[in-house]
Structures are given as C-alpha cells and as structure tokens.
C-alpha cells in the first residue's frame, strides 16, 4: 500500500493538510485569546456602567457583577479622569500588562503561544478601548488559568476538526487519483505487458483513449513506439531469414571457389602466353570472392560475446597484427609502425581489440597497396583522464565519398573495389561492446586516421 502511487499520495496529502491546519491554528488561537480578553472587557464595562447608574449598590451585588464579568478590578477612564469603578482583593501581584488597543498580529501570536506554554496561574492587567465610545479606556485585572483552559479546549477542538478534514480530504484525493491517474497508468502497463509477451500480435498495440492530456500523449508515444518496434521486428525476422540463406550460399560458394583456387596453380604453369597473362587476374578475382564469402559468414554469425576485461599490453597486440599482416602478403612497400609505448597497459578484451586493430590495419594496407605506391601505417596510443585513444593512421589515398557516407555499414562502406565494408562494421561493433566508439578522425589525399575510444570506467587499472 505504501509503495503504491495512490498510497503515497494519500500519506502526503494527509501530512500537507495537517501542516496547513497547524499554520492556520497559530493565528486562530491568537485570535481566540484576543476575543476572550475583549469579551471580558465588554462584560466589565457593562458591570461598571450598572454601578455608575446607581451608586447605592451594596458590596454583595458588586461582587456578583465582578464574578459575572470574570475580573477582579475594573478601571474606567472617562473625561480624562481615571476611576476605579469595581474592585476586589487580588490573590497575587500583577505579573504583566497587555494593551489590546494597538497590538499587532505578531504580538498577539507571541502572547498567545506564551500563555499556552505557561501553566502557572497569574494575575494580568488588560487594557482596551470601551465599546460604543463609552470612555477613553478600560482596564481590567484577571487571572490566566481560565483563559489558558479555554484556549486549550479551543485548540483541541481545532486539531480534531483539522484531523477529520485532513483524513476526509486525503480519502477524496486518494479516490480521485486512483480514478484519474492510477487506473489509466495500470491500463498502459497492461498494454506494455501484453505487447512484451507477444510483440507480433497487433492486438497488443495500445489504443489512446485517456482524457488527461499528459496521459494521452504518453499513450500516443507508446503506440508509435510499439508500431515502429513491430515493423522493426518483422523486418529483422525477414533479414534473419535472408541472412541464413546468404550464409548457406556463401558457405557452399566458398568451398567451390576454394577448389577453383587450387586449379589456378596449374593454370599459372601453362606455357600459353595469353593464359599466363590472364591467370593472375583470375587468381585475384577468385581470392576476392573467397574473402567476401568468409567476411559474409563472419558477419552473419551469432552476436559477439560480451568482452572479458583484463590488463592488456597494446604494444604486443600491435606487434602480433603487424607480424600477421607481413605473413599474409609479400608487399614490402607498406610499413607498419608500432608507436604504442611498451609499458602502457589498457583494460579491454585482448582478442576483440586484436580483431579491431587487425581490421583497421588490413583496410589501410589494402588501400595503400591499391595505389601501387609505398606507404606507412602508424598505430599509436594516447591517454586522457577518462579513456584510452587508439589511433590508426595511414598515408593512403583517403576514403571516397561513398565510403564516407556509408561508414560502418556492411556491404556498403567498402573503400576499394571488391571490398565489402565488413571490417569496419565488425570493428565498430566490438568497440561498442567495450562501451566506446570508433570514429573517422580525418581522411584526404594525404591519408586517413581512425580513432578508437575505450573508456576507463570505474574498474580502470
């Protein structure tokens, strides 16, 4: 109950209403005290006027007038003359004097709170203005115990009434919140749960019908999201089926091309000049086709596993990549420079980062080799407070416009003729699994630079 939206709203409403009632209680109790004292002044004035009308009243009647007024003494000033009209012995000396004629709100509140906090019965003098202009002023002497008792009684009644109002208000708001907010929200949650259980079922898509503008906007946003997600899931399923078919074709085609690649060795030994001239082109075409099939199969495999982080020396990874590239090619015109400081350790998955660097270096080597000129590939590392930055720079011809527009897109981002663009797509996916990103730093006639950002995170070593 307490963890629900309506339950917490009920508690907060009760607390806020009680707080508002307490803020109202303070000036109310001060006003009650003022009314009480003014009532005593008015009673005393009536009693004094009765005595002034007949000077022959006996002592018993005077005591009765004072008792009815609830005072000990009454002083009435008329025509600049101060006159003790009614009097009786007081049990204690006067402890304080309160003038109601010019008392401000702050003063009245302060005096009321002091009276509530002081349980001692004291004698006080109260000064006020007579009603109906029956004099200049009137003074009375009263004891504070009856005043405090009536103030406490009044305060308790106010607090009880406040509690009843708070609970009633909270219950009404509780019901209103459940009807206006909680019930529609539960309906939205129900649609989300049904859609999550069967996203292919169009009946699980929400139909906006809320009357509250904000809730209706949320329902419309959810409806749009569900429709887009349903279409995306259907397209993904079709692509998965297409990918399975392509993978099967690529697998069989790779086997066929591998066999054809073996026969090219004999063709190269032919004495026919035309055959010897065309054989290298045939070998290159078959090699590219095999490479495309292998790349397609690699990209079509299951999603990459989550990286296993550890302390890795990047310098050693770059050395392994350079050695492997030098083994698979006889082109000595492309020099791979390892500019990574040897002691530097980074936190990553060793095998996945090896594949990232290998794909970037291989793309750069192939781009330089395609120009027929010499070139260099430099792998370097620099470190910031939050991340490691791996830079792969080459002196190749730069990326064409089409490759830049479709960067990291499989089968569209190839920079060279016959390229599939899978290398960059796979590298970007692996880097993303590390929480980082692969970016194109710059490209142009003087070369291309790719930058890999690997965040250090909380577990950086």
TrEMBL record:
Lineage, broadest ranks: Bacteria, Pseudomonadati, Pseudomonadota, Alphaproteobacteria, Rhodobacterales
Species for this entry: Tritonibacter horizontis
Residues of the Histidine kinase domain: 248-458
UniProt catalytic activity: ATP + protein L-histidine = ADP + protein N-phospho-L-histidine
Membrane-spanning intervals of the chain: 6-26, 158-181
Protein name: histidine kinase
EC number per UniProt: 2.7.13.3
Pfam families according to UniProt: HATPase_c, HisKA
UniProt keyword list: ATP-binding, Coiled coil, Kinase, Membrane, Nucleotide-binding, Phosphoprotein, Transferase, Transmembrane, Transmembrane helix, Two-component regulatory system
GO molecular function, one term: ATP binding
